[in-house]
Amino acid sequence: MNEDQIRVSVKKEENCRRVLSVEVEREKYDSERERVVKSFSREVELPGFRKGKVPAEIVSERFPEEIRAETLKTLLPQAYSWAVSSEKLQPIGDPTFKDIEDQEGQPLAFNVELEVAPEVEIEDYTQVDIPLQQVEIEDEEVEQVLKNMQDRFADYSEVERGGVSGDLVEIDYVMMDENGEEIEERRVEDYPVQLGTGQILPDIEEGIVGLEPGITREIEVEYPENYKPEEFAGRKIKYKCKVKKVKEKQLQPLDDEFASKVDSKFSNMNELKEDIRKRLLEEKSSQEERKRREQAVDRLIETNPFDIPRSMVESYKDILKQNARKRGQSVEGEEIEKELDDFSLRSIRRYYIIDYIANREDVEVSDRDIEEEISTLTAERPESEEDMQEIFKKGSEAYKNLKAKIFEDKVFDIILEDKEK
Question: Among 288, 326, 365, 403, which residue has the fewest nearby CB atoms (within 10 Å)?
Fold first, then answer.
């Protein structure tokens, strides 16, 4: 098909929708129809005629709709492909053909509705000025980390009293049926529970707090309507629970000996504190940099608006919903739908902005870039160099994720270059 045989006009609509109005010269339509008729003549069998010898006139008379359908089946995709190419469109998804007219003596005319890739043009992306906030670490933050470490390294000693918050208790429990009989396949023994951590259902924890070793109690649990797995949702179920042991937490003193237990590289508590402060500073700085980058993205979205196809947004939302359902989260309601819609739109725009800048600036990630990043990660944990090399083996998921991270780092270095100096 050439430009003398076809005419195309394009109408722009919202959300990257386009309507193509296409006309194909009658001569082209008739030529294709003649080819189809000849093909039918060779294949059809009619009484009084040998196969392949049915006259074209009779074939046209007997199979008008089939011939029309076969002609359009060839011409419509050809014309669509030519129109898309000539108008330099990048279709997303399948087109919809509408208003097809092929009257005798008139051009073949039809409309095509389709979505196209966003038209992205990002201006002044190196002029985005997002100041880098200086971060500080307060003594209280270091002390909180130390308290958490102290909790993790705690010893437990068995006591003969009822359990209280912070204690580690060991319990046996069994589900009971509606007749009060124990269900053996629902029996669990020697189950450890640290009270006050939300490890088990509130009804059970409330029932075993204060229960001394060797004592058994029946506890009724009222499950929420949205509980997972669904077989328990909205039900009231009784359990027979027995406390076997109660162990009291014994915190170690925060001294030089404790620092060495955390890691043998620390000879005293001051070294441990400095290491904690350093890691907190790195973490806060990373958080601030991530925040700064997303502010830059928001600024570019605001100053360079462009449409996104609705089909892309809906597909992204479907993935978010599937992931949320796997985590047992609800995805119903207008408010959640709007949140997912806004998040999807922003995420897709973010992708196109980064892609545009990367193409403009010829951003690439070399094997050497990745090797240097792996070396940096390994330097932090030299004892695990062999493991790190295996984790980031070329082609692995971790390797691909690391490459994507380096790619984004390079793009944001361009966007925010020298802004922090």
Answer: 326
Is 127 part of any domain?
Answer: no
Domain count, the chain: 3
Q: 49 — phi, psi (to 5°)? A: -130, 145
Residue 256 lies in a domain: no
- Find the domain containing 165 and state its range: 155-250
Residue 268 lies in a domain: no
Instruction: Report the alpha-carbon distance of residue 67 to residue 61 in Å, rounded.
Output: 10
C-alpha torsion 155→158→160→165, nearest 10: 40
89-128 pLDDT per residue, tens: 999 989 999 999 988 889 999 999 999 999 999 999 999 9
- What are 302-346's pLDDT values in tens digits? 999 999 999 999 999 999 999 998 887 888 889 999 999 999 999
Label each residue of 216-243 as H, E or C. Answer: EEEEEEECCCCCCCHHHCCCEEEEEEEE
Percentage of the chain beyond pLDDT 90 is 72
Q: Is 22 in contact with 7 (CB distance < 8 Å)?
A: yes
The answer on 216 and 301 residing in a single domain is: no
